[in-house]
Amino acid sequence: MYFNKSTIVFLDGEFVKANSVKTGLYSQTMHYGNGVFEGIRSYNTSDGVKIFKAKEHFDRLQYSASKMHIKLDLSSEEMEHAAYKVLEKNNLTDAYIRPLVYLGENMSLTPTDVVHVAIVAWKWGNLFGDEMLNVMISSYQRPNPKSCHMEAKVVGHYTNSILATTEAKQNGFHEALLTDMNGFIAEGPGANFFLEKDGKFITCPLGNILAGITRATVFELAKDLGFEVEERFFTPEEIFTADAAFFCGTAAEIAGIKRINDYTFPLSWEDSNSQLIQRAYKRRVLGSSQEELYI
Ligand code: PMP
Asked: Residue 91 region, left (φ>0) first, then alpha (ψ -120 to 50), else beta?
């Protein structure tokens, strides 16, 4: 699914065949999860193939690397340029782009100067399809931000996400929703979370979650559409009095939620402001003009 014998990837300044790349068995990333990455999408827009918010994603990659003491020699502009080249060389238009910064041989618990930068891409449609999601409040919490940099996109953090998603699927749900270390609602395993109540949106503040680029886009769209967004902590119980909810993320885009645990949201998706955000988001990533954004 991800690559075939002709797939080209970017690795350390060169474009090479995906199946020619070998990673070392002694990579610090492989053993201890010290690496950083991004998840980015490109869209076939009216203006050609465009990477959505490329600068924001590569800047976050730089930030994540700096938090993990990883020296990244490439600039955001250089990486953006390489990402466009990867798309071009693989004839990709609507694609998912995965830059990965991984480390060389080092079995100690200190950083290494041997840093590899890979950019791979593959064709990827809707993460969840058009289905409304059934979500389980996870028994797992997001890691305490005093134990790691939760606002950075670090390889090792995703073991927590894998545990939560696996638990949710084993219980017959599509996805998990995790609390923070204080029991407040935080985020999904790979997406941020918004509630809708009385036409307003509620989402948790930054601090215990990944600062999603889609989340920031939702703030922009809500402002343009005249909807209020409250950033505050809220408990799982508050969900059970809300009208609608959605996940948002680069891969998930805006994914409507039908049910959380036993609670089915009373407002139909078609009548919700959440759906207006979903439609505006689609138009935004496809590069439609401002006037077209909100029809
Ligand atoms: N939270 C987590 C844990 C994620 O992995 C992601 C996906 N990167 C998000 C939120 C959403 O972030 P973004 O909108 O930048 O993709």
From this structure: left
